[in-house]
From TrEMBL:
Alphabetical UniProt keywords: DNA-binding, Transcription, Transcription regulation
Residue span, HTH araC/xylS-type domain: 214-312
Coiled coil: none
4Fe-4S keyword on record: no
Organism of derivation: Shewanella nanhaiensis
Short name of one Pfam family: HTH_18
Protein name: AraC family transcriptional regulator
InterPro entries in UniProt: AraC_lig (IPR032783), AraC_XylS_family_regulators (IPR050204), Homeodomain-like_sf (IPR009057), HTH_AraC (IPR018060)
Keyword Magnesium part of the UniProt annotation: no
Membrane-crossing segments per the record: none
Length: 316
């Protein structure tokens, strides 16, 4: 039993090593965009955004609706929409909805909406942005919405929620480096919990659960600079070419070499944007022969050159 538990822990740690590498490369940036006490009736509509958003029931429950479903959220529940779909939150399904921007601006001006009568709710809403130029299969592997229930008061997730709540109250502001960093921590905690608690995963997350595919991903993430070929990957993973290609394609809809190429360019993007390394040094770190080869692949993939990104001209 101890040996089995040790094996499961080692396997889980390996999974989260890969996950943390992906998260670090995508550079998620957290923020709280709404935090308020509310008196019923109240309702807020939220437009679609290409970023994950979440809502926390600090006090009282509420209802959330999307184009696909409605969920009842209880006190101390958290609901996340990883793909930023259009949705609404309200005390009841019949409440009139106010645009999120209007509700947020009112709070920012010190004149929050929904204050007439007895306070029934306190909610906190956050989001995590990332560099949209970078794509990764993890973003497609997440569901449109997931609901965290039965979060105990001493759970690390709720400890982080309380810290964010306390910091907002202390500073009387939703905007600070501390709040933003804690929001990122909360997002990572929720993502890890979702993976740990759900048996039926798909895409990249399902690949992390497959021992052989996870080994391949671990090899590529640990050593992107190696001169990998399909043959050397198969040899290291102990799989035939046909089996590896079939299993990888089934879960990630990519070949192993296509995944490696995309991952190398994602790492290149972040190193170009957030470091002072030369392009030759970056090429050496991620497995390109030289700066010229990397420059050509980078421009072909992103539509702009590394120098344009570094200068901030990549939007033109």
């Amino acid at each position: 039993m101890l040996k089995e538990g040790s094996h499961r822990l080692k396997k889980q740690d390996s999974t989260f090593d890969i996950l943390d590498d992906v998260i670090a490369t995508l550079r998620f940036r957290g923020s709280i965009f709404f935090h308020s006490d509310l008196a019923a009736p109240w309702g807020i509509s939220l437009p679609p955004l290409p970023t994950p958003r979440f809502h926390i029931a600090l006090h009282g429950g509420f209802v959330i609706g999307t184009s696909e479903a409605q969920l009842s959220i209880m006190q101390m529940d958290i609901v996340m929409l990883p793909k930023g779909d259009m949705h609404w939150i309200a005390d009841t399904t019949s409440s009139e909805l106010v645009p999120c921007q209007l509700a947020g601006d009112a709070c920012e001006l010190g004149n929050p909406l929904f204050q007439d009568g007895e306070i029934t709710n306190r909610i906190m809403c956050g989001m995590v942005e990332y560099d949209e130029a970078i794509s990764h299969p993890i973003l497609d592997a997440l569901p449109n919405i997931f609901h965290f229930t039965h979060i105990e008061a001493d759970n690390p997730i709720w400890t982080t929620v309380r810290q964010i709540d306390s910091e907002i109250k202390r500073t009387n502001s939703r905007r600070s480096v501390i709040i933003d960093r804690l929001t990122e921590v909360l997002f990572f905690q929720l993502l890890h919990r979702y993976i740990a608690e759900n048996e039926h995963l798909h895409g990249f997350l399902a690949a992390l659960r497959n021992p052989r595919l996870a080994k391949v991903l671990q090899l590529l993430h640990d050593n992107p600079e190696k001169p990998w070929t399909l043959a050397t990957i198969c040899n290291e993973a102990g799989m035939s070419r046909a089996s590896l290609q079939r299993k990888f394609k089934a879960e990630l809809d990519l070949s192993p070499m296509a995944y490696l190429g995309s991952w190398r360019l994602a790492k290149a993007y972040q190193l170009v944007k957030n470091s002072s390394l030369t392009l030759d040094n970056i090429a050496d770190r991620i497995g390109y022969a030289d700066a010229r080869t990397l420059r050509a692949a980078f421009k072909r993939h992103y539509g702009f050159s590394p120098s344009a990104l570094r200068k901030g001209d990549n939007q033109v």
